[in-house]
Amino acid sequence: MAGTRKEKMAETRSRLLQAARKAFGTVGYTDASMDDFTAAVGLTRGALYHHFGDKQGLLRAVVEQIDTEMAERLSQISRRAPTRWQGLVDEWTAYIEMALEPEIQRIMFRDGPAVLGDVSQWASTDNCVTTLKKSLDDLKADGLLIELDTEAAARLINGAASHAATWIAASADPQATSMRAVSSFRQLLNRLREGDIQPTRTK
Question: Which residues of 150-165 are buried (b: 16+ CB within 10 A; e: fewer)?
Fold first, then answer.
């Protein structure tokens, strides 16, 4: 009986997430009616409040779900690269380019920050920074990076990528903005490679 109840609760939560994700991704957070998307899957506001607290809590859960999916996709991109450095570049430029995908653009880079606050303060950001720092540490140990503070670099790269993605999402021409952002971002990353930067001359 306990197992059946637990499974039913998990199913209800999944249905709410699916319905909310569809609504948030199409009409947006503000215009998404809780009554409409709960009724669409045969549930009530009470079920939503029970599982997520409120509409904002539901958005947070949707953001976490999408963020997990994005992380897996990016990990696969990194693993396919011929070198660790190329994997890092490909992974982070792909993150920026994901801002062109309608659902991700609206939920992750428009409504998410507007409702849940600064992306740099999200729990997932710390995980990204930690993972990126480890990658930079490994590359630095192999002599492939210039001398730098890897934690500071990880936070700056993460911030630049997030800002680029929100810039694309808010742009009147996302495709053109994405091309500009990715091109400049690649140039910035490549300047971190050992041998790619000339020492600054002092007079």
Answer: beebbbebbebbbebb
Terminal CA-to-CA distance of the chain, rounded, Å? Answer: 79
Indicate whether 59 pLDDT > 70. yes
Domain ranges for the chain: 1-53, 64-203
For residue 195, what pLDDT is reported? 63
Which tokens sit at 103? 């659902």
Domain 64-203 annotated CATH 1.20.810.10: no
Which pLDDT score, from 0 to 100, does residue 44 have? Answer: 85
What pLDDT was estimated at residue 203? 36
**CB hemisphere CA count around 130 (13 angstroms):** 5
Q: Is the pLDDT of residue 101 over 50?
A: yes
Is 135 in contact with 88 (CB distance < 8 Å)?
yes
The tokens for 92 are 């982070």
- CATH topology assigned to domain 1-53: Arc Repressor Mutant, subunit A (1.10.10)
Residue 171 phi/psi, 5-degree rounding, is -75, 150
Strand, coil or helix: what is 165? helix
Whether residue 135 has pLDDT greater than 50? yes
User: Of the candidates 94, 92, 167, which has an alpha carbon nearest to the alpha carbon of residue 128?
Assistant: 92
